[in-house]
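To whoever picks this up:

The parser on our side crashed when reading a file containing two proteins. I've narrowed it down to the boundary between the first structure block and the second sequence. Both blocks are reproduced below exactly, byte for byte. First block:
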Amino acid sequence: MAVEVVLLVPALVLLLGVFVAGWRLWSARTQVTDAAASAARAATLETSGSVARARAHRVARTNLEVLRVPCGSSTIDVDVSGFARPPGQPAQVRVDVGCTVGLGDLLVPGLPGSWRVHGTASQTMDTFRERQP
């Protein structure tokens, strides 16, 4: 009986650690993608590219903080080149949010210390709304 416990307990602990790592990565990726979608939507409501970029950064950072995404570091890239197109032509805003999720505290052999997850979202701008670069 003691031999079975000695063999099974470490295997179960490793399995639990892998499960927790997978859940942490999936959860962070979902939240980062949601933050990118919210930021892209907020940016399309502005009339100026510079204001839209600032608003997208603010919304993405706020979402990451409110949702308590376990990011060691995060990056937010906003493409507002659609604001340079004249009204009447279709355009989009694209937001890419990256996040480094720490896995070093799980003590599972073979797992990296951290993993980078990305979330990207595009939102179509109102075709006939006034725009400024």
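<<boundary where parser fails>>
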Amino acid sequence: MKTRLNRLMILATAAALTTGLVACNKNDERTAGQQLDSAIAKTEQSAENAEAKAAAAANEAKMAAARTGEQIKEGAAEMRADASAAGSRIADAAGDAAITASVSAGLMKDPDLSAIKIDVDTSNGVVSLKGPAPNAAAKERAETIAKGVSGVKSVSNMLEVRG
């Protein structure tokens, strides 16, 4: 229906143009019918060109929408990966803090170690012990206490025996 209406409008426009051509161009030796046919052909060609341009523009818009959709999907995937990595780092940090607290609490229960300041640090499950130890046996007990805490992967015992 819409195409038919467009064709009728084109024909009406062509008729109006032809009438104008006939009135303005008296040197044209073509008949009014020939001039009308020429005007209609030109109008139809212009309409076809406009339709082709509209189709090309619609196709470009579809392609741009597809590219945008892909970029959104890629961005969402990157955000999920970043969020997962951040969550993992937070969990690791919380785990390390819990390990440090448990090791420190265990060291405080030992009578030889509780009165001595031992620095406990944990990174990715690796516990570092630094500071003084009253004797070699206390140094070994500190390492044993640290290794007994859940989540400890290894212990770096840098305690210095003083005594």
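After patching the parser it read the second block fine. The longest strand covers residues 126-133. The longest helix spans residues 32-109.
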